[in-house]
Amino acid sequence: MSSTNKTVVVGVTGGIAAYKSAELVSRLYKAGISVQVIMTENATRFITPLTLRTLSGNPVLTDAFQEDNRWRVQHIGIAEEADLLVIAPATANIIAKIAHGLADDLLSTVVLATRAPLLLVPAMNTNMFTNPVVQENLATLRKRGFHVLEPDEGELACGVSGKGRMPEVDVIFRRVWELLAPRTDFAGKTLLITSGPTQEDIDPVRYITNRSTGRMGLALAHQAMARGGKVILVTGPTNLPLPEGASIVRVRSAREMFERAKEYYPHCDIVIGAAAVADYRPRTYSEQKVKKSDDDLVIELTRNPDILGELGRDKRNRILVGFAAETGDLIANGEAKMKKKNLDLLVANDVTLDGAGFGVDTNIVTIISRKGEITSLPKMSKDDLARIILDKIAELF
Q1: Is the separation of the CB atoms in 343 and 324 below 8 Å?
Q2: How far, in Å, CA of 109 to CA of 323, rounded?
Q3: Which of 1, 158, 240, 351 is flagged as catalytic?
């Protein structure tokens, strides 16, 4: 990493993972970044301000009323100087404060005053992290544009095993660098991304669908725009917030998604088929609700269009990326699907694995390239996976 004239404010809160903050501060300082550390009162019980002062080369701030001649108004001066604010570790307490706009100490006051990006690195007991209140607070912050780095799973200091460990410093450092020096490798590129499930109507009340939430497609859209790309998002029904700045095209059925994808296809450089498109739909639609009877109900199904397969027939110079949700023979099925649809990359995952597939924040995938390269990845957040997929796509152009 080369040196930079950027300023990063590192907020340290009261968790056992505070000891990792020392290494993070050291890494940032050695990269030529100006580091200003703010510690909450509870954080000083886990690691001393002297340690972080020595590693950052700057006085460590712990008190909203601490005298410092560097700024006329301390919290405003810090907030205006910051190019990035990182809170690592971020406890459930500071997450709740930020989500609800509380400002009762220096760190929470600076958060409200800054316009710089904010990266939260949660670290806590797994029961605390999975508590619905904490998850709702994090969802609120993501919706407002804050960046959240998912914690790792493993043995925690409290003796239990689960999700809640602060990620390794290398992971945090890379994320900080991405936010300080955003990549623009997708500038000038238009991406068509399909996302979410489809709904295939049986009658005015019932329909066939699947467990997709659209989270993976939305992560790809966010990351592509962050790297300078123009995104056309064709999305099936989802309850998740849609990315601001993308061209949003809402659809319900597979046929609707196919028609909209064909419409925008000529204007795109890259197509990512992240939607979980229903392979079949009812052959006939009942205008009236199908009434319950004593007999079994038989619904005859017919094939839906293969969206990526049809687009792949007229590929020209476009890059096509597909997804495959499998329950076995991952590589063989993935390679067959890639060849059949004329894809450049295929992201395959075994949806029977814990932490993979639909309805979760993480995924476990194998990426197969047209050249036969196979990259198996460990469990990671869908945001992190989106970055890797885009890296693979960028290598193609």
Answers
A1: no
A2: 43
A3: 158
d(CA 61, CA 106): 8
3-state secondary structure of 165: strand
C-alpha of 385 from chain center: 8
Q: What are the tens digits of pLDDT across the range 248-261?
A: 999 999 999 999 99
CA pair distance 388, 375, nearest whole angstrom: 11
Q: Mean of the per-residue pLDDT values for the chain?
A: 91
Torsion angles phi and psi, residue 144, rounded to 5: -85, 0
**What gap in Å lies between CA 380 and CA 377, rounded to an integer?**
8
What pLDDT does residue 4 have?
62
Cα 378 to Cα 366: distance, rounded to the nearest angstrom: 9
Report the candidate in 238, 265, 237, 232 with the shortest Cα–Cα distance to residue 251. Answer: 237
Per-residue CA distances from 282 to 107, 206, 207, 285 (Å) = 56, 11, 9, 7
Known catalytic membership, residue 268: no
Of 245, 241, 219, nearest to 232 by C-alpha is 245
Task: Taking the CA atoms of 137, 143, 147 and 151 in sequence, report the sign of the dihedral they define.
Answer: positive
Domains of the chain with bracketed CATH? 7-180 (3.40.50.1950), 190-396 (3.40.50.10300)
Give percent above pLDDT 90 in the chain.
71
Assess contact for 74 and 46: CB atoms under 8 A: no
DSSP β-bridge partners for residue 347: 323, 367
pLDDT, tens only, 140-187: 999 888 999 988 877 777 677 778 889 889 889 988 988 887 789 999
Lookup: tokens for 383:
């945001």
More confidently predicted of 97 and 371: 97
DSSP string, 41-99: TTGGGTS-HHHHHHHHSSPPB--TT---TT-SSHHHHHHHH-SEEEEEEE-HHHHHHHH
Strands 118-122 and 84-90, bridge-based pairing? parallel
DSSP structure class, residue 341: H
Cα(20)–Cα(13) distance, integer angstroms = 12
